Known about the structure:
52% strand; 9% helix; four-stranded antiparallel beta sheet
Amino acid sequence: MTRAQKLQLRVAATAILIVVVAVLLLFRWQTRLTLTIRGAVTVMDADSRKERPIADVEVLVRDGIARGRASTDSSGYFQLTLARGIRRGDPIFLHFRHAGYQPLDVQDFVGDKLYIEHLTALEQKPPGPPGQPEIKVSNVRVRYTSKSLTEINVGSAVKTFQVENKGNVLCRSQHPCSPDGKWKAALGATSLDAGPANFFRNHRISCIAGPCPFTRIESERLSQGGQVLTVSARDWSDTATFLVEAEVFHPMTADLVHESYPVIFGQALNFTLPASAEGVSIQADINRQTIMFPLGPALFLSWASCNARVNPDQTRVYRCELKPGYSFQ
């Protein structure tokens, strides 16, 4: 074997060694990574509008080395971190368990996907007592209050002031003068105070006596958040009188009552409220008798089981499902 051939063999062997080391390092790096799968669990129903989310579903992965456990939140969402060594494309078995639903086992593969599963209820809700007719629930409305800043008109302010001057006197470049610079003029000003925590709206300034055609409002300014109104006027003839008027407002926080209608699918009603909603109650006709039911923090209703979840924007989603013996009319 020539010297050149030996050199070629050494180069080839070195290249093979580098490739093997790179593969081993890549494998080792991949086995150190952890993968997370995400999904949601809802009720199995032929009508997609009735596929409500299921909370507190236990989600298990117990196959091979891929062990993990998670629970769904109020929106049915779960997130589960797989054991190290699991890579994309590997098979996994997901187990979903909840006391009120049939167990579900799913064989799948680890991948970049959302795992959406549906559970079947163990049994339908039992009917009411034998021989007793169902109680009809109708005309359901949701009522709540929210804080709103309003402005209340608490009165008005009126004031007069005069600008004293003598007409037909040449200005001779002595400030102040008429707008055309010909006649001697005078300036006058006054101010109004609406009082602490109050402010003015719709202010008006007018000349009401004297040679009004030869007057002009120079300025009108609100300061201190609208509490103080300052005005000035120019007069280039005889003395004129001005009237200042304004309406006084006071800011107040009031409870506004809102009313909305929930959406009803099957035996459940659904509605969403803004984050500012307070004092939530449900008004309904129970066997044709109108009754107001405060929902309260416990979300208790005598005729339905309710739950709620909070969206990322802090709005709240409510769902109330009828109890046995009740039906929507």
